[in-house]
């Protein structure tokens, strides 16, 4: 009788083990490959319904192709597509063209990534400061640890003396378009 119980337990154990293996295989097969591999980050989320974030707005602007290339090269796309909120001072292509010849190409090289990140992070404040709130002698602590000075030249808002050309609200903050690259001290 004892051997019958042992044999019966062995059969039940074998059935349970095979069912569990089959369930695991079915579950694994049901999960799309993208979910089982490492995630690409927030920037990989497709959403055509919501207001665009700072990266999407910049990527859609023909005047910010250099900035977008720099953000990609610095590995900051996912950080800037997160919830924020962010205030981004976004230099135009013409602003990058004002830098000495070869500067942008040099910064886009992999060995210059930390310098590029430092410069780009100097253009980002965590929080939303609309241009209407700019006041003389107002300072902001930037993501890179540096500080920028906000001000007014007449009614024109400025950052470090550079005029804000336009402001664009986004889903995760605001972009202030500028025509110079801000360089950390």
Automatic annotation (TrEMBL):
Bilayer-crossing regions: none
Record keywords: Signal
One Pfam family named in its UniProt record: Fasciclin
One Gene Ontology cellular component: extracellular space
Cross-referenced InterPro entries: Adhesion/Biosynth-related, FAS1_dom_sf, FAS1_domain
Signal peptide positions on this chain: 1-23
Residue ranges constituting the FAS1 domain according to the UniProt record: 51-182
Protein name: Putative surface protein with fasciclin (FAS1) repeats
Natural source organism: Pontibacter ramchanderi
């Amino acid at each position: 009788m004892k051997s019958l119980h042992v044999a019966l337990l062995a059969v039940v154990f074998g059935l349970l083990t095979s069912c569990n293996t089959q369930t695991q295989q079915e579950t694994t097969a049901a999960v799309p490959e993208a979910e089982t591999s490492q995630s690409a980050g927030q920037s990989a989320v497709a959403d055509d319904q919501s207001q665009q974030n700072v990266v999407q707005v910049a990527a859609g602007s023909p005047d910010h192709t250099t900035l977008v290339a720099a953000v990609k090269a610095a590995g900051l796309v996912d950080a800037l597509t997160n919830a924020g909120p962010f205030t981004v001072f976004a230099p135009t292509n013409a602003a990058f063209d004002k830098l000495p010849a070869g500067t942008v190409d040099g910064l886009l090289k992999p060995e210059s990534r930390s310098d590029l990140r430092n410069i780009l992070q100097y253009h980002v404040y965590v929080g939303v400061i609309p241009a209407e709130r700019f006041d003389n002698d107002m300072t902001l602590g930037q993501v890179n640890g540096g500080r920028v000075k906000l001000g007014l030249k007449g009614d024109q808002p400025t950052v470090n003396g550079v005029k804000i050309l336009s402001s664009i609200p986004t889903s995760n903050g605001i972009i202030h378009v500028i025509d110079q690259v801000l360089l950390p001290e």
